[in-house]
Amino acid sequence: MLTLLELLKDGRFHSGQALGGALGVSRSAVWKQLQQLESDLGLSIHKVRGRGYQLAVPLMLLNSVDIREQSKDCPWTVLVFDSIDSTNAEALRSIELGAQAPFLVLAERQMAGRGRRGRKWVSPFAENLYYSLVLRVDGGMRQLEGLSLVVGLAVMQTLRQFGIVGVGLKWPNDVLVGPKKIAGILLELVGDPADVCHIVLGVGINVNMQKTDEVDQQWTSMRLESGLQVDRNQLVARLNMMLKAYLARHQLQGFASIQEEWEQNHLWQGRAVSLVAGVNKIDGIVMGIDQQGALRLKVDGIESVYSGGELSLRLRDDS
Predict the structure, then answer these.
(1) Candidates 109, 181, 232, 238; catalytic one
(2) Residue 97 needs a FRET pair 20 to 30 A away by CA distance; which of 34, 77, 150, 313 works?
(3) Can you give the pLDDT of all 319 residues of the chain as single tens digits?
């Protein structure tokens, strides 16, 4: 089936006879595979008598060779999957099996993509970026301070390179364009954070997605913002290089050296918000972040600091 997709990905018409010849199957077998592509992958295929079959939208599939060629300064092993439960889950399995970090896991589609707090991450085939970079961390907690915020900065700067205007950050792990989410970050840790551990830097970016009924919040994509289809191989390569630069800076100088830059790009700086933890809610004004990446919030005139993976920040109705 994926061989057939390779033949169709250029978006041109291909006759059933030509496709059958290339695959070594009958025209009826081609028809069945086309139906399966539509059903399993959610692709739209045009069928025109006398002309053949054409993908409604051309596909640019992920290619590990192209990615390595475009990001030669990042000699990471690149693993590309057609379909997987989630790239973070595969990364964690690979760590358990002894895979040597750093390595990168990518997928065309996730069947069980995850966001923060167990939320579903919508993952249509060959439209968005599902990205998990595995790093080995030696030397304790300092290298983990504010790490998810550092990744957010790298994602934001990469999107700006592609002309996405108005992109900024929301504490702790979201990348927004105005009120709309365009990317999210999920970090997962294995091992002893005080000694030696592995960290999975999971990034999901809405790239070429133009519609979905599965997202329960305001969202946008690179294509919706720019009007252009984005080459995801180029996007991965640029994100690799941006991440490498920010991670090196973080390792050498600590998060404190990046704190001010992050605050300058926080879209909710100075805004009235509610900090939600389960059924509990704290209302306050965003003052910024501290040198470990925790949120500084003014509550009833007193500044307090909050951190934790289960916290969620929301704008107050009166902000």
Answers:
(1) 181
(2) 150
(3) 678 888 888 888 888 888 888 888 888 888 888 888 887 877 888 888 888 888 887 888 999 999 999 998 898 999 999 889 999 999 999 999 999 999 999 999 998 876 655 566 677 888 999 999 999 998 767 778 899 999 999 999 999 999 999 999 999 999 999 999 999 999 999 988 878 899 999 999 999 988 776 667 789 999 999 999 999 999 999 999 999 999 999 999 999 999 999 999 999 999 999 999 888 899 999 999 999 999 999 999 999 999 876 788 999 875 4
- Provide the residue range defining the domain that includes 301: 272-315
181 is catalytic: yes
88 is in an annotated binding site: yes
- The answer to whether residues 33 and 90 belong to one domain is no
Cβ proximity of 121 and 113 under 8 Å? yes
Determine the Cα–Cα distance for residues 262 and 132; give it in Å rounded to an integer.
22
Catalytic residue among 68, 109, 116, 238: 116
- Side-chain half-sphere of 164: how many Cα atoms within 13 Å? 31
27 in a labelled binding site: no
Q: 35, 55, 75 — which closes off a domain?
A: 55
Within 8 A by CB and 6+ apart from 183, the residues are 155, 159, 174, 175, 203, 204, 205, 206
> Is 142 noted as a catalytic residue in this protein?
no
**Which residues share a beta bridge with 48?**
52
Q: Are residues 93 and 224 in the same domain?
A: yes
Give me the phi and psi of 280, to 5 degrees please. -90, 145
271 part of the active site: no
**Count of domains in the chain?**
3
pTM of the complete model: 0.91
208 belongs to an annotated ligand binding site:
no
Is 44 one of the annotated binding-site residues?
Answer: no
> Is 86 a known ligand-binding residue?
yes
